Amino acid sequence: MTSHRLDTAKPCTQSTICFGDAPLSIEDIEAITRGAEVKLNDNAAFRARIARGVEFLERLLEEDGVIYGVTTGYGESCTVKVPPHLVPELPLHLTRFHGCGLGRHFSHEISRAVMATRLASLARGVSGVRYELMERIVRLLNLDVTPLIPEEGSVGASGDLTPLSYLAAMLVGEREATHQGKIQPASDIYQALNIEPLELRPKEGLAIMNGTAVMSAIACIAYKRADYLAQLASRITALVCVALQGNSFHFDEKLFAVKPHPGQCRVAEWIRSDLEHEKLPRNSSRLQDQYSLRCAPHVIGVLEDAMPMFRQMIEIELNSANDNPLLDAEGEHVLHGGHFYGGHIAFVMDSMKTCIANIADLLDRQMAMMMDTRFNRGLPANLSGAHGERKTINHGFKAVQIGTSAWTAEALKLTMPASVFSRSTECHNQDKVSMGTIAARDCLRVIELSEQVTVATLLAACQALELRRQQDERLEQHLTTAVKEMQQQILSEFSLLEEDRPLEGELRKFLDLVRQREFELYRA
Is this model's pTM higher than 0.90 or not? Predict the structure, then answer.
């Protein structure tokens, strides 16, 4: 196929994210999930390229050319030729018979990301869809109208057919959608906004539905949350190291110079910058800490080292044409292939969730050390802040540590690779599938559980550090500014746990802060 560069003659403004202008980034998709305005490139060359694809398709139809999914049935039914007078109905039937998703519904943010990732693929200009269809997706994004998409029903090839059918259905005014926080029939939303439903042209239903948009959208969201979690786990490790009077020389620059995995070294540098270990008093009673402290850079660093590869794979998929068939209007070819296959995203998500679950396990072990008087070097049992005889009835973080163990176990259980569970389906036409969407959903769930572990360990670490400061007020002068500011930020919202109280509300509050990335860490 003739390669097409992305037109850059008329870029969008900084306040918008433009499709069909330049390659999109993970950060662009995240901005859209948070409500950023979007725009479609209206450069004349770009519009002409889109039009050429539509004209080429229409010419083929007039010549009675055989085009998969346009003049034939779908999948194994590709040998069934559709009579010309029924061809216009075929896209609508595709959207309708795939309306069988089940399970919970994707969040509003994920639905926005799905719309954006699908639009990015269509904007490559080789899918045979009209400029007007892409404009409609842009308009709905800017009006914050999103499809209500069930999570379950995709095997990741032929792409995300069933979940993407809910986007296609919304475009034609069918099924349910969300607007202004309210779930309504799409037809009612259109009527209220004075929008006419689209009538899909030949191939447009297939172009919308046949691709990796759902798994790629989730991957973009998972990437940003994983990136932040790695930084937060590093900060927590520093807090725990101080609270447990750990050996800060475990993070020495000279040590890591002889095993120089870049991400691992970066994590060690983060922790080292939080400790400024040359200023901390040495605990001469123990040369080596347990692995969950000593090896923290080696655990977190695996994720940190893998992230550049993950980014590359996600962003290539994001900026790819991944439906089938593709139309080369300039060379006048119809190209039948398998770009809908989500193998790369499946690999990224299966790999990322393993890295993340290992970090949850690391923090769970740090939490266990802080609770146990055999390992916490003089801190109260279960980090209870109770005094005198009241120690006998107060249990501090005991139950939170049990919860942390449960969340960690569930995260670890979900690390079985989804991509190895390919199932032959659809009359053995889809006989090898990626399972990329299941992998992505699993990854997001592992991240959610690991964030819960992270928040619990963060609060426990700040409690432990405060209890240590009460034992030795001189500790304050040895803390770095970053550590002091982090603890102060936590304790401004979290009262020292002296008397037992239900902590669910506080855990949820801090979980929201983590997911909004409210804590300033090592990089923007």
Answer: yes
* Residues in CB range of 455: below 8 A, 6 or more apart: 507, 510, 511, 514
Domains and CATH numbers, the chain: 16-211 (1.10.275.10), 219-323+332-515 (1.20.200.10)
3-class DSSP state for residue 207?
A: helix
Give CA separation, 374 vs 86, 244, 368, 370, in Å: 76, 12, 10, 9
d(CA 363, CA 377): 18
Residues annotated as part of the active site? 68
H helical segments located in 319-435: 343-371, 398-413
The tokens for 424 are: 């032959």
The CA distances from residue 252 to 271, 295, 363, 470, in Å, are 10, 12, 21, 28
Tokens of 216: 């790629």
Structure confidence by residue, pLDDT tens digits, 151-189: 999 998 888 999 999 999 999 999 999 999 999 999 999
Can you tell me the distance from the alpha carbon of 145 to that of 99, in angstroms, rounded to the nearest whole number?
Answer: 19
At a CB cut-off of 8 Å and minimum separation 6, what does 135 contact? Answer: 40
Q: What is the DSSP letter of 200?
A: P
Provide the pairing of β-strand 326-328 with 333-335. antiparallel
